Amino acid sequence: MADTAHTSPPPDRTALPQPSAVRSLLRLWPFARPVRVRLFTAAFVGVLASCIGLVIPLVLKWMVDGPVAERDPGGVWLGGAYLLLLGVAEALLFGLRRRLVARPLAGVEAAMRDALYRHLQRLPVAFHDRWSSGQLLSRGTTDLQLVRLFLAFPLTFLLVNATTILVGAVLLLVQRWSLGLVLLAPVVPLMVLCSVFEAKYGRAARRTQDQLGDLTTVVEESVLGIRVIKGFGRHRSQARAFRELTHALRTSELRKARLLAWILGFNTTLPEIAIGGALVLGTLQVADGVLSAGTLVAFLSTALALRWPVESIGFLLAMGNEAATASDRYFEVMDVPAVDVPGTDAPGAGVPGTGAPGTGAPDTDAPDRRPSATERPIPQDPALKEPALKEPAAQEPAAQDPASAGTGGLVFSGVEFRYPDAPPDSPPLLKDITLHIRPGETMALVGATGSGKTTLTALVPRLYDPTAGRISLDGRDLATLGRDEVRALVAVAFEEPTLFSATVAENVLMGGERAQESDLGRALAVAQAEGFVGALPEGSATQVGEQGLSLSGGQRQRLALARAVVGRPRFLILDDPLSALDVHTEALVEAALRRVLATTTALVVAHRPSTVLLADRVALLSGGRIAAVGTHHQLLRDNPEYTALMSGEGEAAR
Ligand SMILES: Nc1ncnc2c1ncn2[C@@H]1O[C@H](COP(=O)(O)OP(=O)(O)OP(=O)(O)O)[C@@H](O)[C@H]1O
Fold it and tell me: Where is the ABC transmembrane type-1 domain (predicted)?
């Protein structure tokens, strides 16, 4: 499992030491590798184009000292033709460079985005509990654009410009070493200034990109929560919060602009002063007859040709720093160990450095940290350990695995759980949970608000892993099952029914890998959703809006229930599935659900007696433990806490 540092979003990273920009950028290599030939060719073409630019001053020198001095019009025309050819070749080569990289780099950006999305799907729920969606969105959008821009432009031009400056410096020194030294005098101060700039700009870029992520979160929350904002008239305070963030972002952007202006100023002024100095000195040397006019022209043309490569260093460093920051932010997410490796039986096999025990989120190397099913036999009848009233289950096992006779169904053995972000000295939320739901049995889970019912149910589909103890499904240790196996065995309907921007049918059918269109009707019937789905403009082919907002709460809940039952799961986890239904619909759904529950092993979080009555037995969760197990009537008779909860007194007292 990821440790807290991994699951937590980075705090203010600008306060931390920044990793070297080069090291951050080198991490992009695996993604850039497939297009390396194009990148290197583009760099070579760029260097060639730039060197052609440096030949132009040499042609000028030849023209001034030759045809111009000798008043030879034919030579002047020839020189002009050479210059034109060189100029056209330079332009064509720069165009070719751009063409070479544009398409492959769009592919690199898409591949990185794809990898990020796939990774996000496989990260533990604990990670998503802690990271804001805006931070993730901005890493998958703006940050990746910055990376593509860097690979397309500054990466090549840092190389092209460095080569141009180097070749140009040699040409200057060869033409007239004394003038060359005057021109090269600003190199050392400029290098110092550039390194100071780089450090400062790197921090500013980090701050800006983090603030952009926060801003995205606010926008997203405002859009999704628009009903609450309007309902409570919070648009002014929301707008104020938004303004504060945009103001902070603007301040950071201005700081970047100031830093950029500062380095551009130095990068322009110092070389200009040097060129001025060389011009004065060169003119004196021409006047003294120690230097030809052609050499001075060539010298100054070379110096002017080097102006852009020097001036642009500021821009290129800025873009490089932004890309390095983007790379850091991208890999902060990519470095969080994933929960599972598809196609492997043991979750997380092959993913290095994952999973410290006791942190509460699904682990990728669970077999390492917990003994395997063969090492730790499941207690022969964990139900015997249950602390309170017992009676035979109404449903006997339909088909028990002979190898695990008596341990089939859903078994919690000494399960303990603490959320990864809970204070380390706080007691675990769930302690020593030992519970046996027999094959085919429906167990209701009852407890006060906040007692941990949802948390306990979330352990079954492995949204989180217990911090101690074990859960088994039909005798198989849950921790040894791959993600696909768990998904095939367990279906869940959450308290908050989430629907996706897709058709009703797609939303329901995503509940079962092998679910067919024919299962759709059955699932909708169980959830008593046929009526309203049939009345939708295009029936089950109707698109439901973002998060299914175009449907009522009860309708969404019924579709979520249909999704849970569509795949005929062996284990069904329902978190208060009928809470948003009216009494009449609830009775109809219950009648249909009863038939589904008869064929599955189910754990149903229940708040109301009507839901509890769906179950064969009831487990009472109190103080983080299973305080009692029995039938509804037994618990009503013998357990005052349960009686209070069912009568509503318990909740009212809280
Ligand atoms: N992701 C999380 N990180 C940290 N703590 C959490 C997280 N989710 C829930 N909790 C805490 O765990 C406790 C139990 O929450 P849980 O949702 O399991 O209770 P519940 O019994 O289902 O409540 P309800 O009946 O109101 O739905 C609460 O105190 C809650 O604040």
Answer: 40-322
Does residue 345 have its Cβ closer than 6 Å to ligand 1?
no
Distance from Cα 421 to the centre of ligand 1, integer Å: 12
CA of 428 to the centre of ligand 1 (A): 12
Cβ(452) – ligand 1 distance below 6 Å: yes
Ligand 1 neighbour 547 (Cβ under 6 A): no
Rg (CA), the chain: 35
Ligand 1 site, residue 360, Cβ cutoff 6 A: no
| Inter-residue contact 107 to 35 (CB < 8 Å) | yes
For residues 617 and 435, give the distance between their C-alpha atoms in angstroms, rounded to a whole number: 11
Residue 335 dihedral angles phi and psi, to the nearest 5° = -80, -15
Q: In the predicted model, what is the mean pLDDT of residues 286-297? A: 87
Instruction: For ligand 1, atom 5, name the residue with the nearest CA.
Output: 419
Domains and CATH numbers, the chain: 8-334 (1.20.1560.10), 366-497+560-653 (3.40.50.300)
Q: Residue 354: its pLDDT value, please?
A: 33
Instruction: List, as one string, the DSSP characters of 480-520.
Output: GS-HHHHHHHEEEE-SS----SEEHHHHHHTT-TT--HHHH
Supply the residue whose CA is at minimum distance from atom 29 of ligand 1.
450
pLDDT tens, position by position, 514-572: 777 888 988 998 888 888 898 888 888 888 866 555 788 788 888 888 998 898 888 99
Average pLDDT in the chain: 81
Question: Which residue is listed with tokens 């809006």?
Answer: 545
**Ligand 1 pocket check for 454: Cβ under 6 Å:** yes
Express each pLDDT in 242-277 by its tens digit: 899 999 999 999 999 999 999 999 988 998 899 899
CA distance 273 to 332: 44
Give first-to-last CA distance, the chain, whole Å.
35
Report ipTM (2 d.p.): 0.96
Which pTM was predicted?
0.69
pLDDT of 365 over the 60 cut: no
CA angle 93, 99, 105 (to 5 degrees): 130
Q: How many CB atoms lie within 10 A of CB 166?
A: 11
Mean of the pLDDT values across residues 590-616?
84
Share in percent of the chain as helix, strand, coil (round to 5): 60, 10, 30
Per-residue DSSP letter, 289: T
Torsion angle, CA of 521/523/525/529, rounded to 10 degrees?
Answer: -100
**3 C-alpha to center of ligand 1: Å?**
20
576, 480 Cβ separation under 8 angstroms: no
- Ligand 1, from 419, 433, 603: best to mutate by most atoms within 8 Å of Cβ? 419
